[in-house]
């Protein structure tokens, strides 16, 4: 069942009383089924209905008495931009098809595409991988175990500089950079701007960084805290 088959439909009680109309849906984890319906009544006040309240769906949505105080489930990714993991933009998510193998329906320059949710990392932007296995691998986080301090041993206090990201531990996965905010401006070896502090990384930003061999710098500078404008700009000699 597709999200679009619900949006805008009138919501009626079992007795035929009009309760409002459907404005949005929220989904169970993995988007295999609908978790709740977000509706608006005649006064445009929101009401929330659990999916279990739905009795039938045809020209109208017939529901039982159940109500929710707050919506449950994951918000819809409709309207978000989808990218391939290699950086190319696919288009915008236009619809969702629930079921055992849920699909994102993406509209773009190459027409409509149906993409398995299992291959997509869904966030502010959506990154699409060739397979579910590769999507899981890209999302894996390597954690380092800190060395243990022997019992009864006191570590002398000392002042240290503020911690900075360990560049050697940063995995350059440019797909995961898409949509991130640049915390510090990144420049090439000749002082030309690659990415401005405060902007969001897009495919063009990644392309410039790759050509100038600055992908690692771009990755690190989406993780560090903001500094004074252009403080890390190299000096020209």
Helicity range: under 10%
Secondary structure: number of strands: 15
**General form:** elongated
The run of helices and strands is EEEEEEEEEEEEEHEEHH
- The helix tally amounts to 3
Task: Explain how this protein is built.
This protein has 237 residues and is mostly beta strands. The protein has 3 domains: 3-75, PRC-barrel domain (SH3 type barrels, Roll), CATH 2.30.30.240; 81-136, PRC-barrel domain (SH3 type barrels); 169-220. The protein is 10% helix and 30% strand. It is built from 3 helices and 15 strands. The protein has helices spanning 132-139, 203-211, 215-220; strands at 10-13, 18-27, 34-40, 46-50, 54-57, 61-63, 74-75, 81-84, 89-97, 103-108, 111-116, 120-122, 126-128, 186-187, 193-195. The strands form 3 sheets. Strands 1, 2, 3, 4, 5, 6 and 7 form a 7-stranded mixed beta sheet that branches. Residues 141-145, 164-172 and 224-231 have low confidence and may be disordered.
Secondary structure layout:
Blueprint: E1 10-13, E2 18-27, E3 34-40, E4 46-50, E5 54-57, E6 61-63, E7 74-75, E8 81-84, E9 89-97, E10 103-108, E11 111-116, E12 120-122, E13 126-128, H1 132-139, E14 186-187, E15 193-195, H2 203-211, H3 215-220
Parallel strand pairs: 1-6, 8-13
Antiparallel strand pairs: 1-2, 2-3, 2-7, 3-4, 5-6, 8-9, 9-10, 10-11, 12-13, 14-15
């Amino acid at each position: 069942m597709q999200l679009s088959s619900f949006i805008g439909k009138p919501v009626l009680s079992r007795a035929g009383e009009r309760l409002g109309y459907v404005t949005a849906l929220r989904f169970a984890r993995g988007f295999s089924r609908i978790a709740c319906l977000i509706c608006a009544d005649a006064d445009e006040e929101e009401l929330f209905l659990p999916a279990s309240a739905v009795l039938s769906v045809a020209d109208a949505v017939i529901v039982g008495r159940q109500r929710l105080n707050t919506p449950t489930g994951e918000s819809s990714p409709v309207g978000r931009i989808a990218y391939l993991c290699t950086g190319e933009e696919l288009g915008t998510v236009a619809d969702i098809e629930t079921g055992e193998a849920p699909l994102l329906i993406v509209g773009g320059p190459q027409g409509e595409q149906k993409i398995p949710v299992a291959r997509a990392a869904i966030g502010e932007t959506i990154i699409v991988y060739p397979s579910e296995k590769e999507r899981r691998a890209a999302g894996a986080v390597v954690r380092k175990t800190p060395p243990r301090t022997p019992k009864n041993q006191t570590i002398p206090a000392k002042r240290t500089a503020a911690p900075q990201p360990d560049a050697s531990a940063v995995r350059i996965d440019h797909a995961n950079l898409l949509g991130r905010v640049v915390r510090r401006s990144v420049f090439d070896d000749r002082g030309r701007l690659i990415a401005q502090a405060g902007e969001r990384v897009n495919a063009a930003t990644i392309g410039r960084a790759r050509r100038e061999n600055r992908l690692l710098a771009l990755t690190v500078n989406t993780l560090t805290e903001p500094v004074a404008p252009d403080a890390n700009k190299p000096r020209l000699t």
